[in-house]
Amino acid sequence: MIFAGIDYSLNGSAVSIFDDSFPISFKNTKIWFFSKIKKYNQQYDNITGLHIEYDSIMDRNIKTSNIILDILLTNKVQYVGLEGYSFASKVGRMFDIAEGCGSLKEKMFLSNIPVEIIPPTTIKKFYTGKGNSNKVKMIESFHSKHNIHLDHILGVSGKIDSSPVADIVDSYAILEYILQN
């Protein structure tokens, strides 16, 4: 069966896809992330960076959900884990996230792709042991579990707890969660 973990966010979404006919590992997972920064529009081994230009929030939401759906269909994904909404988001931005994620959910529903919505606190507790862990703790847990430093692979300078590293870690944690539950 082919599974996907999706972290949908305003600054950069990420999708992790795994075919369970292979041993579970980060290297056996295909990953896509979205960025408004052009330098990330490239291939990094099993990670693909996609630069998306958009004119408005609506344009971004439509383009992002279309690309994610295309990735899911092209890879014949049969089950998706999707991070639920974080109610700690900035109030005005929460609606933008909901509109974009709603568009994606509708497209997956119409394409008959089953989706499990997982609360952010559940993913954090599963991955770090604490439901209120921050992005740094999630990334540290990922590094500890897999001995992979995404900031080095992607050439991220400065804060590692921002996109795309945090987005990739979240999508992979979601994938691991649905594979183990």
Can you walk me through this structure?
This protein has 181 residues and is α/β, with parallel strands linked by helices. It has a single domain (2-180), classed as Ribonuclease H-like superfamily/Ribonuclease H (Nucleotidyltransferase, domain 5), CATH 3.30.420. The protein is 44% helix and 19% strand. The chain has six helices and seven strands. It has helices spanning 57-74, 91-110, 120-128, 135-146, 150-154, 165-180, and strands at residues 2-7, 14-19, 29-35, 43-44, 47-51, 79-83, 115-118. It has a seven-stranded mixed beta sheet. β1 (2-7) and β2 (14-19) form a beta hairpin. α3 crosses α6. The longest helix has 20 residues, at 91-110. It is globular, with a radius of gyration of 15 Å. The two termini are 14 Å apart. The model has no long low-confidence stretch (mean pLDDT 91).
